[in-house]
């Protein structure tokens, strides 16, 4: 898809975006948040690395699956890969990626169900935990929901998300923001193969 603002009509969105960002330099004290081409971009320096929060792209699929397998328990991984596949088929814009040096280090799977924003699953590479990756992914998803005029946001209240409840609580998702009846969500539904 060509970017309509390209004067020459020769560059796609990614190329235009790359050229614009090539002029930016991350600073330790500065968080750059910008809307460009309807995508939320968050850049933040982590040591020698610059973290970027963006929408999922099909080319991320293998890295995301590897990250989910590494970062989640076996049961959680099995549930999450089904939900990931469902959300991909419905709306891949609600899957946010954190990357450093073109490597996926975090993923957040969200969904919209019955006019409610739901944070389904957050997974962060073990080497990048406690460095703000999860918080930045949640902030990016909140922006995405708000852009779509979804203001009621909940966290799926399964045992896997309760394990990281302190992170969600720090982001303003107290007990009342955990959706206990999550099994009714389309993304979490278990369908029989018979």
Report on the structure:
This protein has a domain of 131 residues: 3-Layer(aba) Sandwich (Aminopeptidase). Helix 2 runs antiparallel to helix 3. It is 32% helix and 27% strand. It has an 8-stranded mixed sheet, sandwiched between helices. The N terminus and C terminus are likely disordered. The N and C termini lie far apart (40 Å). With 194 residues, it is of the alpha+beta class. The protein has 6 helices and 8 strands; from the N terminus they run αβββααβββαβααβ. Strand 5 and strand 6 form a beta hairpin.
Index terms:
Aminopeptidase; about 190 residues; disordered C terminus; disordered N terminus; alpha+beta
What's the gist of this structure?
The protein contains 6 helices and 8 strands; from the N terminus they run αβββααβββαβααβ.
CATH fold-level label of the domain at 54-184 = Aminopeptidase
Overall CATH architecture of the domain at 54-184:
3-Layer(aba) Sandwich
Secondary structure class reads: alpha+beta
- N-to-C CA distance: 40 Å
**What is the highest CATH level, the class of the domain at 54-184?**
Alpha Beta
> β content, as a range?
25-35%
- Uncertain stretches: 1-40, 190-194
Give me the strand/helix succession. Answer: HEEEHHEEEHEHHE
CATH superfamily of the domain at 54-184: Gcn5-related N-acetyltransferase (GNAT)
Mean pLDDT: 75
Over all CA atoms, what is the radius of gyration?
A: 17 Å
Major sheet: arrangement of strands: 1-2-3-4-5-6-7-8
Individual helix count: 6
Number of strands: 8
Outline type? globular
Major pleated sheet: 8 strands, mixed
Question: Could you estimate the helical fraction of the residues in percent?
Answer: 25-40%
């Amino acid at each position: 898809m060509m970017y309509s603002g390209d004067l020459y009509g020769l560059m796609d969105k990614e190329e235009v975006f790359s050229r614009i960002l090539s002029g930016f330099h991350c600073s330790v004290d500065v968080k750059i948040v910008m809307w460009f081409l309807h995508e939320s971009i968050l850049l933040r320096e982590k040591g020698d690395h610059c973290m970027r929060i963006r929408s999922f792209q099909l080319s991320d699929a293998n890295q995301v699956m590897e990250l989910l397998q590494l970062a989640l328990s076996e049961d959680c991984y099995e549930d999450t890969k089904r939900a990931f596949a469902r959300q991909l088929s419905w709306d891949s814009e609600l899957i946010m990626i954190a990357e450093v040096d073109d490597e996926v280090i975090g993923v957040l799977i969200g969904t919209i169900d019955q006019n409610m924003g739901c944070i389904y699953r957050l997974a962060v590479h073990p080497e990048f935990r406690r460095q703000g990756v999860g918080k930045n992914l949640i902030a990016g998803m909140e922006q995405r929901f708000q852009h779509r005029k979804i203001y009621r946001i909940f966290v799926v209240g399964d045992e896997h998300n309760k394990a990281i409840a302190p992170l969600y609580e720090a982001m303003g998702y107290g007990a009342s923001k955990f959706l206990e009846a999550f099994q009714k969500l389309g993304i979490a539904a278990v369908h029989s193969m018979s």
